[in-house]
């Protein structure tokens, strides 16, 4: 097993139509700007997908992204992300999963996969460290998610993503299974089904991930674990009762989704709580790996089965929302969805709409509130698109558009609402309305601050826009690392300033001085975990800005699909109709919160990110002062070509010999060199026939300077400066390499996959050769090196360069 620092940075690109397999590397710029996981997934889709494509067409891409913490042993880091365009909402959706596929793909040597196209026949993809195979999946078709994984012969170091019948039949809220965990929301399973892709199998174990700074990393891990074991939610409530510990709090605060959100509490609800299920079903742990919180559980049921205990959202939507309070029945419905591969939130929300539409004579089905009759059968029919299940498989936005009943269609942007009634939690209402993927509670979990801890007044609009924005961006960081969102309870609330400030004072500060409260909030554990694992220094401010960037990019991608203020809305029931058990009849005052939220985010009044915001975050290129003044780029003027040619030739000779020297002295240069195959040759020169340098990797795996003539050699990668004037500007450091590329003065010919390691090698050599002031002009980011590396190794590089060995 080969050890690597944090990640190989390798991303697979697979076209199912042509069966072409490519590979590219995560650039350092993208790593700094988007961190990993969800962030990189969105960036790659933004670069590749045109607005308006069909989510179930071959142009759509399913991005599977692992994140830098996976495999490093950080608490609760056994997670990965997926990003695609949703067939349910027609906008972009991202999901997080804790199944074994992530670790398997990472240890096979890949940080991610981008899957496009459509296979002519059902297939599954088999990925190992050495190969990518397309395997006939005809025998797997029709199998449920459990049966499919059993048939794939998965070993301990393997993992798979699979769909069940719902994905095969393109149910718009079909999900994807990995072990007993799911990429749950937005219909990702339907995207796989539309591609004739039954499964993706990763056969890992070839690589072991180690953090860049293991000593410091271990200390931060211990601190993170201590925080988790100290926090009441992560060490007690979730660990003992799972996420369904939330039922007790939500029942007390009347924010349960009883009977399609007609009321917020019910006397029978505590009987299906996490505490009640622990006793009734003799629960034990069944979690993601590795996990420190241990919120996942399984238990014993009346028919003798051992099954996963339903999560809170499942209990809320497949139970309370349809008037069912028996955990045995809820578990049966959950098991049908898990095996067929359907999102339990959307499935339950759709059943609830059908029940209420039936009461009003709008839609005919065998379903009614409070009765289990017909529920299991309807779920099966939805998964197989049979009879009335065929239309139910399209979700509540489609159904209410066709049959009526929009006033009780509980969705935002087409995504069925999760199990919190925002009439008792206004910040959660704002979060639902502006969530990028639709009616999602995980975009910004304000319910915790308003209901669980009582730190924000749930019936006041003040401070809610600020905290929605804050938690959105922190959540994006977490899903880019990638780790579990539940760590927020511990990593933020157990920091000394927050923990030891009295609750009443902390609440006053958050409610009345939200900017100050946010400024004082310490989320630095996430920053340090990312920085120490990658070896790339980053400040808390830059880390948080990356979260802003990820969130705003996703919003911008959605606005290109037509999303605007008109879509940042809650179901009419929540805006106009009070809960049946609320004497005050409160509704959600959304508009005032929405206006302030847009201003904080840098959106216009219609909810569109402004160009200034997009440029500030680096999503759109910045306009330089010269460009504002009408000067597009620096003018190159001819001068004494002979002197310039001589100078550039000398510099190229020196750089070529320095690359040879640095590869023997510096382990980081050597590591980049090892990424390149034996016999690899690259060149840097001036077009059309100007000075050049040629460097090659010999049979002993060493770089050698090959001189200034090509002499019939095969060149794998040629970096070409377009003319001698441009080269002179480059080598007198009037213009950086990045600027030269931007102005189309430096072009690449050859193996594009090798550009990143070659450029990184040249950057490191320039840092060795040049004084800091000049090197900062020549390279994209000046590194922070130890004194020994700066002095002793620099001396060795110079000595070997001059002596030629």
Chart the SSEs and their pairings.
Layout: E1 2-5, E2 10-15, E3 20-25, H1 28-34, H2 37-48, E4 62-65, E5 80-85, E6 92-97, H3 101-107, E7 112-116, E8 123-127, E9 132-136, H4 145-151, E10 158-162, H5 165-168, E11 176-178, E12 181-183, H6 188-194, E13 197-203, E14 207-210, H7 214-230, H8 232-241, H9 246-252, H10 258-261, H11 274-281, E15 284-285, E16 297-300, E17 306-308, H12 312-318, H13 327-340, H14 344-359, H15 375-384, H16 388-392, H17 396-403, E18 411-412, E19 415-416, H18 426-434, H19 446-452, H20 464-481, H21 487-493, H22 496-500, H23 503-512, H24 514-520, H25 524-534, H26 540-559, H27 572-576, H28 590-601, H29 611-616, H30 625-628, H31 641-665, H32 667-674, E20 681-686, E21 692-697, E22 703-707, E23 717-721, H33 724-731, H34 737-742, E24 746-750, H35 755-769, H36 772-778, H37 787-803
Parallel strand pairs: 1-14, 2-7, 8-13, 20-23
Antiparallel strand pairs: 2-3, 4-5, 4-7, 5-6, 8-9, 10-13, 11-12, 15-16, 16-17, 18-19, 20-21, 21-22, 23-24
Helix pairs in contact: 1-2, 2-20, 2-26, 7-21, 7-25, 12-14, 13-15, 18-20, 20-26, 20-28, 23-24, 31-32, 31-33, 31-35, 31-37, 35-36
Write up this protein.
54% of the residues are buried. Residues 631-639 have low confidence and may be disordered. The protein has 805 residues and is α+β, with helices and mostly antiparallel strands. Strands 3-2-7-4-5-6 form a six-stranded mixed sheet. It has a five-stranded mixed sheet with strand order 22-21-20-23-24. The chain has four domains: 2-210, Aldehyde ferredoxin oxidoreductase, N-terminal domain (Aldehyde Ferredoxin Oxidoreductase,  A, domain 1, 4-Layer Sandwich); 242-404, Aldehyde Ferredoxin Oxidoreductase Protein, subunit A, domain 2 (Orthogonal Bundle); 419-478 and 488-619, Aldehyde Ferredoxin Oxidoreductase Protein, subunit A, domain 3 (Orthogonal Bundle), CATH 1.10.599.10; 641-803, Nonspecific Lipid-transfer Protein, Chain A, CATH 3.30.1050. The protein is globular. It contains 37 helices and 24 strands.
């Amino acid at each position: 097993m080969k050890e690597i620092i944090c990640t190989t940075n390798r991303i697979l690109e697979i076209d199912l139509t042509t069966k072409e397999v490519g590979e590219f590397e995560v650039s350092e710029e993208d790593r700094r700007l988007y961190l990993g996981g969800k962030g990189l997934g969105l960036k790659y889709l933004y670069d590749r997908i045109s607005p308006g494509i069909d989510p179930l067409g071959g142009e759509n891409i399913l991005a599977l992204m692992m994140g830098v913490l996976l495999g490093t042993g950080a608490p609760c880091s056994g997670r990965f992300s997926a990003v695609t365009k949703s067939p349910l909402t027609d906008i972009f959706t991202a999901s997080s999963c804790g199944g074994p596929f992530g670790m398997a793909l990472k240890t096979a040597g890949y940080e991610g996969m981008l899957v496009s196209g459509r296979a002519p026949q059902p297939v599954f993809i088999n990925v190992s460290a050495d190969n990518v195979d397309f395997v006939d999946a005809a025998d797997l078709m029709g199998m449920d998610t459990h049966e499919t994984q059993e048939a794939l012969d998965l070993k301990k170091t393997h993992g798979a993503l699979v769909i069940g019948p719902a994905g095969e039949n393109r149910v718009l809220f079909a999900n994807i299974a990995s072990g007993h965990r799911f990429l749950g929301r937005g219909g990702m399973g339907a995207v796989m089904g539309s591609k004739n892709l039954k499964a993706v199998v990763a056969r890992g174990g070839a690589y072991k991930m180690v953090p860049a700074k293991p000593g410091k990393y271990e200390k931060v891990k211990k601190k993170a674990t201590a925080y988790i074991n100290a926090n009441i939610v992560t060490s007690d409530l979730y660990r003992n009762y799972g996420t369904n510990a939330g039922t007790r709090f939500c029942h007390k605060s009347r924010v349960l989704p009883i009977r399609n959100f007609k009321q917020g509490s019910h006397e029978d609800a505590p009987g299906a709580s996490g505490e009640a299920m622990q006793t009734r079903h003799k629960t034990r742990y069944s979690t993601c790996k590795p996990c420190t919180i241990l919120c996942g559980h399984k238990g014993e049921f009346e028919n003798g089965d051992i099954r996963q205990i339903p999560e809170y959202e499942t209990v809320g939507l497949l139970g309370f929302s349809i008037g069912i309070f028996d955990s045995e029945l809820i578990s049966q419905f959950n098991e049908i969805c898990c095996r067929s591969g359907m999102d339990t939130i959307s499935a339950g929300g759709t059943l609830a709409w059908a029940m209420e539409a039936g009461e009003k004579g709008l839609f005919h089905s065998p379903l009614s509130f409070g009765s289990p009759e017909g529920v299991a059968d309807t779920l099966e029919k939805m998964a197989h698109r049979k009879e009335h299940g065929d239309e139910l498989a399209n979700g509540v936005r489609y159904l209410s558009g066709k049959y009526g009943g929009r006033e009780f269609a509980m969705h935002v942007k087409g995504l069925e609402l999760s199990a919190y009634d925002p009439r008792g939690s206004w910040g959660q209402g704002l979060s639902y309305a502006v969530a990028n993927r639709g009616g999602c509670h995980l975009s910004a979990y304000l319910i915790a601050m308003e209901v669980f801890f009582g730190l924000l007044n749930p019936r006041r609009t003040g401070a809610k826009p600020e905290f929605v924005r804050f938690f959105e961006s922190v959540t994006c960081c977490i899903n880019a690392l990638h780790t579990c969102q539940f760590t927020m309870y511990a990593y933020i609330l157990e920091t000394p300033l927050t923990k030891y400030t009295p609750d009443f004072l902390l609440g006053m500060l958050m409610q009345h001085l939200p900017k100050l409260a946010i400024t004082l909030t310490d989320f630095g554990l996430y920053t340090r975990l990312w920085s120490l694992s990658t070896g790339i220094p980053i400040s808390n401010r830059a880390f948080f800005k990356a979260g802003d960037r990820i969130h705003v990019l996703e919003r911008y991608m959605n606005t290109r699909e037509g999303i605007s203020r008109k879509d940042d809305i809650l179901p009419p029931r929540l805006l106009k109709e009070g809960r049946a058990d609320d004497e005050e009849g409160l509704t959600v005052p959304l508009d005032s919160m929405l206006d302030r939220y847009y201003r904080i985010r840098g959106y216009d009044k219609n909810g569109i990110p402004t160009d200034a915001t997009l440029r500030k975050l680096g999503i759109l290129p910045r306009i330089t002062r010269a460009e504002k003044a009408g000067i597009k780029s620096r003018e190159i003027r001819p001068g004494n070509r002979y002197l310039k040619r001589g100078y550039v030739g000398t510099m190229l000779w020196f750089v070529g010999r320095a690359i040879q020297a640095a590869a023997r002295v510096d382990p980081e240069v050597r590591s980049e060199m090892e990424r390149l195959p034996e016999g690899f040759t690259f060149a840097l020169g001036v077009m059309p026939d100007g000075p050049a340098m040629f460097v090659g990797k010999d049979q002993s795996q060493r770089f050698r300077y090959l001189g200034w003539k090509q002499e019939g050699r095969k060149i794998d990668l040629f970096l070409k400066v377009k003319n001698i004037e441009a080269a002179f500007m480059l080598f007198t450091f009037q213009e950086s390499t990045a600027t030269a590329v931007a102005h189309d003065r430096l072009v690449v010919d050859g193996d594009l996959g090798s550009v990143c390691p070659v450029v990184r090698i040249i950057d490191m050599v320039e840092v060795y050769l040049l004084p800091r002031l000049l090197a900062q002009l020549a390279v994209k980011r000046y590194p922070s090196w130890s004194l020994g590396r700066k002095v002793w190794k620099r001396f060795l590089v110079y000595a070997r360069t001059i002596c030629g060995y």
